[in-house]
Amino acid sequence: MAKYADIIKIEAPTSAIEGATVIVDVSVKNIASSDQYLAVTAVFDSTSFPFQFDYLLVSPGQTVIFRGWFTMPSKNVRITAWSWYWDGSDWVQDDQITKDITLATAVAEFANAAITKYERR
Amino acid sequence: MNEIAGLELGLGEEQVMPGYVGYGPLGYGVYYVMAAAPWPPITVEPGDTVRVYIRFQHRGKECSPVLYCSMGTRVLTVFNEDSQLTRQKTLTLTRKDTWTTYSETIDIAIPSSYTGYGWKDIYAKIMLDGKNMAISPEYDDCVQIAKVVPEFQLAEITKYESM
Questions:
Q1: Any CB–CB contact under 8 A between B58 and chain A?
Q2: Dihedral of CA B110/B113/B115/B118: which sign?
Q3: Does residue B120 belong to the interface with chain A, where contact is any CB pair within 8 Å?
Q4: What's B38-145's CATH class?
Q5: What pLDDT digit, counting tens, does each position of A75-96 carry?
Q6: Which of A72, B23, B78, B138 falls 20 to 30 Å from A6 in CA-CA distance?
């Protein structure tokens, strides 16, 4: 149970092909009665990946989305994300969430074949 | 957000030739819509080459598909490809994470000894591992292969004289 930085949800694809950019959106709600500095960190397996914002000042009851991204490796991965709040002197780990992403096999797709012109040579 | 990052999978079914199923005098059947080509038909002769311009889209894994183009004649539901007027070539495509449009050409050389004169229909397709991946609309009567015959006219005596 989170004290201040409640992770509402994590959004990420359920599968991705190797080399694809995987975008991870972590929604965090300030459940405190006062403004809080909130942050999110995350790893896929044990590799950390960056987020768009290091931290945000969040009003009471407000939910913010921290967006992170990484390049899909050639294996299934588990994302683990943590929320943090600032207690005035240190960052305190608060909530946690996980999500699994499976490695998808890349396929080739084709569409809209058309003859656009023909001529005598 | 895409279900699969990097690919928007959605085309699960093989594309089919234009047509519909309906009820006619002889019962249910598949009726093929013969599209009129949006360009004027051309007339060629044995020994000529027809250059066909083909466009298609690809995304996903790198691959080496076969671009296939055939002239022939459609009889009801069957497109009779003329093997002498069918050509293919293998392409090399790199991986694309978004739909990418390609334009290619195929030259169909009409053998000098060709005798199957008349109007020809034409279509093209993309094949991968022997499977049809995308098929173009089929154009009806767009190329006429004409027989070259000697013609004479205006025969007349232009002069006569004592030798």
A1: yes
A2: positive
A3: no
A4: mainly beta
A5: 999 999 999 999 999 999 999 9
A6: A72
Sign of the Cα pseudo-torsion (B138, B143, B145, B146, in order): positive
Q: What is residue B35's predicted lDDT score, i.e. its pLDDT?
A: 64
Q: Write down the pTM of the prediction.
A: 0.58
DSSP β-bridge partners for residue B66: B90, B127
- Can you tell me the ipTM of this complex? 0.70
Name the residue among A117, A112, A19, A116 with its Cα closest to residue B100: A112
Q: How far apart are CA B85 and CA B89, in angstroms?
A: 14
What are the structural domain ranges in chain A? 5-104
Mean pLDDT of A61-87: 96
Distance CA B81, CA B24 (A): 26
Q: Which residues in chain A are contacts of B129 at CB distance < 8 A? A: none
Q: d(Cα A112, Cα B65) in Å, to the nearest integer?
A: 15
Name the minimum distance, in Å, from the CA of A109 to any CA of chain B. 5
The CATH homologous superfamily for domain A5-104 is Immunoglobulins (2.60.40.10)
* Residue B161 burial (10 A CB sphere; 0-12, 13-18, 19+): exposed
Q: What is the pLDDT of residues B78-128, one digit of tens each?
A: 889 999 999 999 999 998 878 899 999 999 999 999 999 999 999 999 999
Q: Is B107 on the interface with A (CB under 8 A)?
A: yes
Say yes or no: B117 contacts chain A, CB-CB below 8 A: no
- The mean pLDDT value for A58-67 works out to 97
